[in-house]
Amino acid sequence: MYEGFNYPDGNLANSSGGSGWLSNAGWGSFPRGNGIHTGIGGSSAMVVEAQTLNAPINYALQRSGRQLNSTTGYNWAFREFAPENRIDMDAGDTVYFSYLFSMRNISTGAGSYCEIIFINADRTELFRLGVGNRSLVPTISAPDNTAWVSGTRLIEPQVSYLLVGRIIPGPTNDVISIQLYSEFESIAGEPEVWELEVERDIRFSLIDRIGLVSGGLESGIDHTSIYDELRFGTSFEAVTGVSGSAETPMWAGYPWLNDNADVQTGNFLGLLNVAAQPWVWSYAVTNWMYANEDYMFEEGAWIYLTQPAQ
After folding, report:
1. Helices (H), 220-280
2. Topology at the third CATH level for domain 2-246
């Protein structure tokens, strides 16, 4: 399933290209109607332009050369899947998806949004993911935008990112995972440990459409969010063009969460950054620690803290 926004310049409303979508039903308002929902005053829009976002260095899929710009305001647009592409969260197959995005500015005041949301066939929202908060990090969130899990990577304005997602329906809990790659990174293959992952019971649901939710409401800020190259497929390679699996770096038996070398050790030492090991940064203590991984044991460890500045 594919959407490259390969349309003439102008408003996205009712555009119906790409492949794998419900026949004769383009992008519209929710649940499906004429036009795109716009922000306060109805002055904002989602428009197609003849530009394209930068992709990760080895992103290997053909691109349309056009992108979707969601301007200032709070905007959303929805599109329905063809029946054969609906995602059965009770007994369906694993689904992968990806899209490029960029945010022109990011507000910590009223918040900035660049998300994709997944809708059940009964027209209720199941979950959303992307950037949809004031903390400038990616999240996988509940319908009310309460984060189920948040990342540590700070999203930088005017930098392009590829978000790759995976949905694994299960007999009890369903697993939702995402991995981000900036335009300056390479994709090494499907990660062994994904950047963000959460288990939730979304059984007995049938995802039959998605929505793009973007923009922001803080005055005086250009909240333009940009989407490009939206894909769904049955493998990591199908949505990135990169085959194989990536070996996840480890520290003291704990996997890196991302290329920034963040490591979650749970009740042991909490969230750390180990890029400068054996000196590691503790997010909880907000201080440097000397923690040589050769001396990390199940029974405990010797760790030295730096003296805080007086």
Report:
1. 236-240
2. Jelly Rolls (2.60.120)
